[in-house]
Amino acid sequence: MMRPFPFSLSLLALLCAGAPALAMDPVEMAPLGAWRGRMVLDEQTGAFSYCTIENSFDKGFSTIIAQNGDHETNIAIVFGDPRLALDRKYEIRLDIDGKLQRNVDGFAADSKLLVAPTGNDPEFLKALSTGKTLTFTGSVDAVTFQLGDIRQPISDLTSCVDVSAPKPTKTLENGGDTLLPKPLSVILRAAGLGKAEVVELPGTPENRPIDYAWNFGPILGGAEQITLKPGEDFLKKSMAYIDVLAPLCPGTFSQEVGKPENFGNLHLLEADMACLGGNRETSAALVFYQVGDTLTVFFHEAALPDRAMADNARANIIHVLRYLIKGEGDPLPAPARK
Q1: Would 300 disulfide with which of 180, 248, 268, 310, CB 3.0-4.6 Å?
Q2: For the chain, how many helices (H) and strands (E)?
């Protein structure tokens, strides 16, 4: 059962203690307006707490539907006088259109606010989003709320949580490596980037600006993999990649490209880029690496004060690649500084 949400609203509640009655005529409640949504932050830390939608009804009632970061849902029913005991359990039956029922143990958040936790229950939430009525039944009272146009507000509630709730950190060392192709994950971990937080990119691979991304302290890392056409030149393709990035700089763009290293059909190149004079001056350390017909681009972007860290990550990746190609030296470079 979900934990109580820390409601801090000055609201009212309804229903008395005891088992819900199975037969009684509920009091009908009509909405006075549209559902309103908002995000609630923790008063002490400012961190995300939960999202809500709420509506006012006639006869002095209000209803709040809240959802936390685990998509657990609380439904609060509110009324105009204090009647609840904080140390008592309130058995409530929730009914949507007479088709789907849930018996829950309610609790009083305060003497005027009764909360019915429904947990993470996709079936209930889907029925609620398409339902016409929601009935609360207690031991001596029953109230039916006309839900009105609630489909989009429920969708907005879930979207609010998806966008606002903190996501579990996935590093290369605790499951984030599954979001990258295994060869890239092996290279990055060997380069001392095991604590990098892998970013789950939205959309489909075809619509993403880059293929893979990760955060390592203050620097942003990423990789793209490009299939070369027969006859395409490694160096020309690498330079063309840099040329595409140059117009994205709002200030002065500069680049410095190293000398390509060629090992048969294996190719390696490093490059530096900088964007100066704009609102945020940045640099990027790049590695271009070709095996067969696949060109992989590693980059680490940083603000100028953190440039050395991006350079170090790039140097360690090159160290690992040279070892994999030539089998010489120590396979593990010095750990990347975070």
Answers
A1: 310
A2: 5, 18
Rg (CA), the chain: 29
| Gap between the Cα atoms of 39 and 218, Å rounded | 28
Per-residue pLDDT at 337 exceeds 70 = no
Closest C-alpha to 16, from 67, 69, 84, 82: 84
What whole-number distance in Å separates Cα of residue 39 and Cα of residue 232? 51
- Residue 79: band (very low, low, confident or very high) from pLDDT cuts 50, 70, 90: confident
Do residues 189 and 172 make contact, with C-beta atoms less than 8 angstroms apart?
A: yes
**Average of per-residue pLDDT across 203-231:** 88
pTM over 0.85: no
Bridge partners (DSSP) of residue 160 are: none
Task: Quickly list H helices, 46-181.
Answer: 122-130, 151-164
Name residue 257's amino acid.
V
Q: Please answer whether residues 225 and 254 qualify as being in contact, where contact means their C-beta atoms are separated by less than 8 angstroms.
A: no
Q: How far is CA 14 from CA 9, 18, 27, 107, 109, in A?
A: 15, 13, 12, 11, 12
Q: Record the tokens describing residue 196, joined without a space.
A: 């990098």
Roughly what angle, to the nearest 10 degrees, separates helices 182-190 and 307-326? 110
